[in-house]
Automatic annotation (TrEMBL):
This is DUF1249 domain-containing protein.
Length: 164
């Protein structure tokens, strides 16, 4: 039994922040395989696989080290008019990470964790958003969405992207 305790002490522990950075890395790999965002131009790209749920990938900004995107279905929430679900994404090209900065899944983050949440709650919320993103990307891949099914870009105004 003492050998087991010694082995456990030598294994590094992964804290919540480290786990979150790991999620960002995993999501980056999934997203790269599906959509190769560095090759996409600004505007709205649509992916249709014949299931009636067209996917919209809005490339909002591209910079040397980051790309800002929004991933959503072409389907508004009947109550709010917001695309639901939708995820605002930031790709960090140099560190190969993809972060879901905001998600809209029926409610905004302020409604979920409040305006002034403690840091631990912010990390927990980011973990949930990025876990959701990873599962969504897996689902999209299984359904057949990807770079081969993307059409566009349609040039749309920033106001349309914010509300559509």
């Amino acid at each position: 039994m003492p050998m087991l305790a010694a082995t456990a002490e030598r294994l590094p522990r992964l804290n919540r922040f480290g786990w979150l950075m790991g999620l960002y890395g995993e999501n980056h790999g999934r997203f790269q395989r599906l959509f190769a965002p560095a090759r996409l131009g600004l505007g709205r790209h649509r992916s249709s696989v014949g299931d009636g749920l067209d996917l919209c990938l809005d490339v909002i900004e591209q910079h040397r080290y980051t790309t800002e995107l929004r991933l959503t279905y072409a389907m508004p929430d009947p109550v709010t008019g917001e695309p639901d679900p939708s995820a605002w994404l930031r790709v960090y090209h140099d560190t190969r990470q993809l972060e879901a900065t905001h998600c809209y899944i029926g409610r905004r983050w302020q409604d979920v964790i409040g305006l002034y949440p403690p840091p631990a709650e912010v990390i927990g919320h980011r973990m949930r958003m990025n876990t959701f993103l990873g599962k969504w990307l897996e689902y999209l891949g299984e359904r057949g969405h990807g770079i081969a099914t993307l059409r566009g870009p349609e040039i749309v105004s920033e106001e349309v992207i914010k509300t559509a």
